[in-house]
Design a protein that fits this description.
With 1149 residues, the protein is an alpha+beta fold. The protein has a nine-stranded antiparallel sheet, sandwiched between helices. It has a six-stranded antiparallel sheet with strand order 3-2-4-13-5-11, with no helix packed on it. A hairpin with a 3-residue loop joins strand 21 (551-556) and strand 22 (560-566). Helix 26 (879-904) runs antiparallel to helix 32. The chain crosses the membrane at residues 79-97, 103-120, 299-320, 352-375, 886-904, 916-936, 966-983, 1003-1023, 1035-1053, 1073-1093.
């Protein structure tokens, strides 16, 4: 049936629909509460003077105006790029030892490629912004009709119409809806991660504005709070028709939430664009730099120091030698013509010549700095992102969605993550509740097994447990798949419950589930069946379970609930209509929900369901017949990770109900500040003397593989925090379901759900409540730290659960360090009812205070701040460390050959190589192999990494990129340069290479030495690769081959351009056997030291991945896909792994 005629405001009892005036509203007009909105009055002079932001939003890092300057700033805060920019300018002077174009061209290419990458990634973000800003919405215009306009054109005060399944374009005040009394359903998944629908309600005074004619006369003013990030509060007043009406969050529809199950709503725009609460919770896209990149800068500072040092040494020696060239009126090196030279070489002004030589040296030895390092790593990251996007193991077949790496800036940091901060709803769970078990009259029903039960059984037995399909929509084995119902028990199914001994209690149990809710049945137009729109997935699961057991809710009106009930006597389904008298709705403080109904037999029934902590104390003496059995079942269900509720009822006396109803009506219509207190007290009064029926158990199905994933992450030494917008009870249950919380853990709970604080808030004492809350959180943190000390002594694991209000105070500057100390000592941390701002602040706190790598996982707009604050990355553990070390090795090996040649030639400033040799070294001849290493290399297969998660600690502990390893590679580069220079010069000089008998000259020596460098560094790359593909072979040997091709082609260019390279390979080097012999001997000699060290290290001091590689090479590990592992690690390796694991435990404690 349609729901337009339902007047939910008459069913509910508490303040969710009526906004009592509180002391907060007295602040309107003061600082922080100064916003004024003129509704549907665009021509009002006062409205025109207000300069509120428009509704255009932008989440991009750049704009068309600032892209070039901001992007250039990003590039030139990399010290190497800044250095080469300075060198490029200076190279136009006579000081340069080479042509300016040979420096400028590579720099422009490197900067250009990086800027293009940044532009492409930001353009993708801009496309999403354009799509959002250009969505259409209906606006009530000056012509008094609704016309479509784009979101970005909305203004504060506009009246808009939003239709079913559309997103709200701005923060709106709900005026009315397609329902008579102005209620609407809203999905807030993009704000708080929850998919259950929220019920919003317009003020009664505006609920009648339901057509263009009534809106034509509507003029009002809103005074409210200024823009802020708090999603769960709103303070304001509506001035309409000479009266004032207080506003609450129940009348506010937030941007990016969606209208559901309501044909349309009318609303007034209050906040637009970046003033909306969802945008207030977001932060500007940060200019993130990975820790490896920051360490690269430090290494480059070392290389700069080396560059300055060798330039200084060279200039001092050059100055001394220059001064000696003219002594006592005599010229020592007369052939240099000291008597006819410039200031670059002037024996009579040797200090000046030495200083100018120092500047020349800074440019000449600049090849120590790898100009292509940054751009090569950028290319590697982009290619890694492509592979991530196309990884079949990360493809979700059900949703037909692959993984998507939105940015590639931080790929390498996945291999170093210390803490994972995850959202819950939709990330850990499917957000789909299923009714799986129940306890009725002391009997347990339901034969299914949850993920937690399977995990417990597997741990106890040590054997794998055969499990059913883990997909989010499990089918039951009693028939077709039913969403929300995964119950299996032949004692109750298919009407068999009528044969049970306690059939009367079973009937009342499922009748209570069918009646005690606010779900509304809707007809599925495709299947012609009935589905239910409920405020929460739990409630929908209860109604579906009741239907499957023979109690189908098929119609609801404002005052009645109609069921198809299975009649035990006839075995047929009969129609029964119950009159709905009151709904006492669920709240976090009450922890229960009740309805009062009148049956067709004129019997008054109070049906109630709620948390066991509040329900058992409300049972009557004669209603506790099977209390002990029910408590035992609830305990068992909780251990299985299920969410439980106790179900009870009471038959009401007519006189008692009439008296209570009169008091209750009076209380809920009161205008006093203590209205809520009175309503609570009256609800407590009638919700007593209950008779226990049983308990329900529902499961929020986990995403496939979540428990196993968390187990592997824990074994790898990674800390896991869950930041969720869910209630505490929900989050705790899911914590158990996904093994984040485990039996035997000591749980520390920090909450402000306390009677004293509730009383202060209800009295409107905001300052007193804030002070008491801060003191309470501080006290609870200190108590937790005391428990932490005792838990360490007994080796007990701790878990921390904190609610959203408490978290807000724990993040105060006075408490944040104490809170962090407590949280870091816990094996698991769950933050409940977290706002997007909370998530971002917690992530920032962990990242900045610990200095460790953080990874955030989320699935909604409410997670954006957290994602932006965290160090997010995807990549291969350790690859970038090797890649970067190799870059510095090859540049030091190349750069120091220039230095040795300078020393050999009395620091003349003459480079050993042709200008274009030097320019192309980093760009073409040595950069491609390192890209192949970063993209394709893997030291251990993914299967073995999963088998031995402790290997991940090589990345967390930065073993492959620690300073000792970096300095080792640098020393290897210096040694390689010495071997190449000494062996080449001693083998080639004074040897006749040309056919006419000419000995080796400057051009031949430079080409030969350069050839040895290219061969040595590329072969060194080949020795470092663990996993060869044809691409790596192509890049390594192709780079060497390209050097010869380039030298031939460049050698044929006119000698005025090619200079020393003219025909040098074809005429001098290729015909000479000595050239080839020297190349082979020098390259082998240069590789021997590293090869020897690597052989020694892998055999006698192996790293963890070395051990796996050796066993794999020896055939001790099966490496075929899908094969089983045929053996365990040897004893010595087990001891090393055990040592590392113990170290992780010590580090955490």
């Amino acid at each position: 049936m349609g729901r337009r005629k339902l007047r939910f405001s008459k069913l509910y009892s508490f303040s969710c629909f009526k906004s009592p005036a509180t002391d907060d509203h007295a602040q309107i007009g003061r600082k922080g509460y100064s916003r004024v909105v003129y509704c549907n009055d665009p021509d009002n002079p006062d409205s025109l003077q207000l300069n509120y932001k428009g509704n255009y939003v932008s989440t991009t890092k750049y704009t068309a105006v600032n892209f070039i300057p901001k992007s250039l700033f990003e590039q030139f805060r990399r010290v190497a790029n800044l250095y080469f920019l300075v060198v490029a300018f200076v190279s136009f002077s006579p000081l340069a030892p080479y042509k300016a174009v040979t420096v400028l061209a590579p720099l422009l290419m490197v900067i250009g490629v990086t800027m293009v990458k940044e532009a492409v990634e930001d353009w993708r973000r801009r496309k999403q912004d354009v799509e959002a800003n250009n969505r259409k919405v209906k606006v009530f215009g000056k012509s008094y009709t609704f016309t479509e306009t784009r979101w970005k054109h909305l203004k504060v005060g506009d009246v808009v119409q939003v239709d079913k399944d559309e997103y709200f374009p701005a923060d709106l005040l709900l005026l009315s809806s397609s329902y008579d009394d102005g209620v609407c359903y809203v999905e807030t998944m993009n704000l708080d991660g929850e998919t259950n629908l929220k019920l919003k309600h317009a003020l009664e005074v505006t609920a009648s504005l339901r057509d263009e004619e009534s809106l034509k006369r509507f003029k009002a003013m809103i005074k409210c709070e200024d823009p802020n990030e708090n999603l769960y509060s709103f303070i304001g007043t509506l001035h309409y028709n000479g009266s004032q009406y207080p506003l609450s969050p129940q009348q506010i529809l937030l941007r990016d939430s969606k209208l559901k199950n309501t044909d349309y709503i009318y609303g007034v725009v209050i906040f637009t664009g970046h003033d909306t609460k969802v945008m207030q919770n977001s932060v500007d896209p940060p200019s993130k730099r990975s820790k490896i990149e920051r360490r690269m800068d430090k290494i480059i500072y070392i290389l700069f120091s080396t560059l300055i040092a060798i330039s200084g040494v060279g200039s001092v020696i050059f100055g001394i030698e220059t001064r000696r060239d003219y002594e006592d009126g005599k010229y020592r090196r007369w052939y240099l013509r000291p008597d006819h030279t410039t200031s670059l070489y002037d024996p009579q002004r040797a200090p000046l010549a030495a200083f100018l030589h120092f500047l020349t040296g800074l440019m000449l030895y600049g090849y120590l700095i790898p100009i292509s390092l940054y751009v090569s790593i950028e290319i590697v990251k982009v290619l890694q992102s492509v592979f991530i996007n196309r990884d079949q193991e990360m493809y979700d077949e059900e949703s037909d969605r692959p993984a998507r790496a939105r940015t590639s800036n931080l790929n390498e940091e996945l291999g170093q993550v210390d803490t994972v901060l995850s959202d819950k709803t939709g990330t850990l769970t499917c957000n789909s509740m299923e009714f799986v078990k129940c306890s009725i009259a002391g009997n347990a029903y339901g034969r299914g097994m949850t993920e937690v039960e399977r995990a417990l059984l597997q741990r106890k037995s040590g054997k794998p447990v055969v499990e059913a399909d883990d997909s989010c929509n499990d089918s039951n084995d009693m028939g077709k798949s039913v969403k929300g119902f995964n119950f299996r028990d032949e004692r109750l199914m298919n009407g068999c419950w009528i044969h049970e001994q306690d059939s009367d209690r079973i009937r009342m149990f499922f009748r209570a589930l069918a009646l005690c809710n606010t779900a509304v049945p809707e007809e599925d137009k495709e299947s012609h069946g009935v589905f239910y729109e409920a405020e929460s997935p739990d409630e929908a699961a209860f109604v579906v379970a009741a239907r499957e057991m023979g109690f189908e809710l098929y119609e609801r009106t404002q005052m009645t609930i109609s069921l198809h009930e299975l009649d035990p006597g006839s075995g047929r389904r009969v129609d029964r209509v119950y009159k709905l008298l009151n709904v006492l709705e669920f709240s976090s403080s009450r922890k229960r929900m009740s309805v009062v109904v009148r049956s067709m037999e004129n019997q008054l029934l109070l049906l109630s369901k709620g948390a066991d902590s509040v329900m058992f104390e409300r049972l009557s003496e004669h209603g506790r017949a099977f209390e002990a059995e029910t408590k035992e079942h609830i305990k068992r269900y909780a251990e299985a990770g299920l969410r439980t509720l106790v179900v009870a009822y009471r038959v009401l006396d007519e006189t008692e109900y009439c008296n209570w109803e009169a008091e209750f009506t009076k209380a809920k219509t009161a205008e006093t500040a203590d209205r809520d207190v009175l309503v609570d007290e009256l609800a407590d009064k009638i919700e007593n003397g209950l008779v226990l029926l049983g308990a329900t158990a529902v499961e929020d199905k986990l995403q496939k593989g979540v428990p196993e994933c968390i187990n592997k992450l824990s074994q790898a030494g990674i800390n896991i925090w869950v930041l969720t917008g869910d209630k505490m009870e929900t989050a705790i249950n899911i914590g158990y379901a996904c093994s984040l919380l485990r039996q035997g853990m000591k749980q520390i709970t920090i909450t402000l759900d306390l009677p004293d604080i509730d009383a202060l808030e209800k009295r409107g004492d905001k300052e007193g409540a804030s002070k008491a809350s801060l003191e309470s959180v501080s006290k609870q943190i200190n108590e937790g730290k005391f428990q932490m000390t005792s838990a360490k002594a007994s080796s007990t694991e701790l878990s921390l659960v904190i609610d959203g209000k408490s978290l807000g105070y724990a993040l105060d500057k006075k408490l944040e360090m104490s809170f962090l100390e407590l949280a870091l000592s816990c094996a698991s941390v769950i933050c409940c009812r977290s706002t997007p701002k909370h998530k971002a602040l917690v992530t920032r706190l962990v990242k900045t205070r610990t200095g460790k790598m953080t990874l955030a996982i989320g699935d909604g707009a409410n997670d954006v701040g957290m994602l932006q604050e965290a160090d997010i990355g995807v990549g291969i553990s350790g690859a970038e460390g090797m890649q970067i070390c190799y870059f510095f090795y090859k540049n030091i090996a190349f750069g120091f050959t220039l230095f040795w040649y300078e020393a050999y030639t009395s620091f003349s400033g003459q480079p050993a190589y042709n200008d274009w040799y030097m320019s192309f070294y980093n760009v073409f001849f040595t950069s491609l192999p390192v890209i192949a290493l970063g993209v394709f290399d893997q030291d251990v297969s993914a299967r073995l990494c999963l088998k031995y998660p402790v290997l991940y600690q090589e990345g967390v502990q930065n073993i492959l990129f620690r300073w000792s390893r970096i300095l080792g590679w640098m020393c290897n580069g210096v040694l390689t340069s010495i071997i190449i220079f000494i062996f080449t010069t001693n083998s080639m000089i004074k040897q006749a290479l040309r056919e006419d008998g000419q000995v080796t000259d400057y051009a031949i020596l430079g080409a030969t030495m350069y050839t040895c460098v290219v061969w040595a560094v590329n072969c060194q790359m080949a020795l470092s690769i663990n996993y060869f593909t044809w691409i790596q072979h192509f890049f390594i040997w192709g780079s060497i081959g390209f050097w010869y091709i380039f030298l031939i082609m460049y050698g044929y260019v006119s000698p005025t351009l090619s200079t020393t390279a003219y025909m040098v390979l074809v005429e001098a080097c290729v015909p000479s056997p000595l050239y080839w012999l020297v190349t082979v001997l020098v390259v082998v000699s240069a590789l021997v030291p590293c090869f020897a060290y690597r052989a020694f290290q892998s055999r006698f001091r192996p790293m963890y991945h070395d051990i796996i590689q050796i066993r794999r090479a020896e055939g001790s590990e099966e490496i075929e896909s899908g094969s089983s592992v045929s053996g365990e690690l040897p004893r010595d390796v087990k001891l090393r792994v055990q040592h590392l694991t113990e170290g992780l435990i010590t580090r955490k404690s």
